[in-house]
Design goal:
Blueprint (H helix, E strand, L loop, with lengths): L2 E12 L5 E9 L4 E8 L5 H13 L6 E4 L2 H14 L2 E4 L4 H11 L34 E8 L3 H5 L15 H4 L6 E8 L4 H11 L1 E7 L5 E6 L2
Parallel strand pairs: 1-4, 4-5
Antiparallel strand pairs: 1-2, 2-3, 6-7, 8-9
Helix pairs in contact: 1-2
Length: about 220
């Protein structure tokens, strides 16, 4: 399977007319460079993106999937991918792409059209958290832990209708000792269990933070 990782977003650069420049950058999942192109902000359209992806695909095999970690890039790349028959997947796990972007960020200050603004290529905007819709509320939630070595055994073979256990995130593949306690949260969903599970599957959680206070609660970070 051919997997690309791509980012399409503004950079700390301006063209001769003073317009902010956007950059399309593509590499594959192994980190091999595939394509790059700059575009003035006024020309950022799905049509421009489609034309650039066509140029990129002409130089190599058509990808099965394009992975995108930045929410602001996702909609544009998804629309462009649909026109070309390429599946676009939201994923924060794009290490090859993020390494490229960090390396390139070191080069921007050397360019004449660098704006001088503070820039971190992989930092994402964090909008204020939204409350969970009442129709997804479960009965209760509580903290729990499980030894890293027991995770796969505990869940992999169970008849769970919605289950995601990516190979690359299994404790053994992350180099975690089997005795390390992996923290988590158990939600007793009651009648809302299936709608809540489907909602979690759709938004693709990436982080969970506890906020103490009265009342206390959880803030869920997600890909979508």
């Amino acid at each position: 399977m051919e997997v690309w990782q791509s980012d399409f977003y503004k950079r700390p650069l301006r063209d001769a007319a003073g317009q902010v420049l956007w950059e399309l950058f593509i590499c594959d999942a192994t980190g091999e460079f595939i394509y790059e192109a700059l575009c003035p902000q006024s020309l950022v359209t799905i049509d421009w993106l489609v034309s650039q992806l066509q140029i990129a695909t002409a130089k190599t095999r058509l990808p099965n999937i394009i992975q995108v970690f930045r929410p602001q890039s996702l909609s544009l790349l998804t629309s462009a991918g649909q026109q070309l028959g390429i599946k676009v997947q939201a994923s924060r796990r794009t290490p090859a792409l993020k390494q490229w972007l960090q390396n390139r960020a070191l080069q921007y200050p050397q360019q004449e059209n660098y704006t001088g603004e503070v820039y971190n290529p992989i930092t994402l905007d964090k909008p204020p958290p939204l409350p969970l819709p009442e129709n997804l509320w479960g009965d209760r939630w509580r903290f729990a832990t499980i030894p890293a070595g027991n995770i796969e055994e505990a869940f992999a073979e169970r008849p769970i209708p919605i289950l995601q256990m990516p190979e690359e995130l299994l404790p053994l593949n992350l180099g975690l000792a089997s005795t390390i306690a992996v923290p988590g949260v158990i939600i007793d969903g009651g009648r809302q269990s299936m709608p809540l599970a489907r909602w979690l599957e759709d938004i693709q959680p990436v982080a969970l933070n506890y906020i103490s206070g009265a009342p206390d609660g959880l803030i869920l970070g997600a890909t979508r």
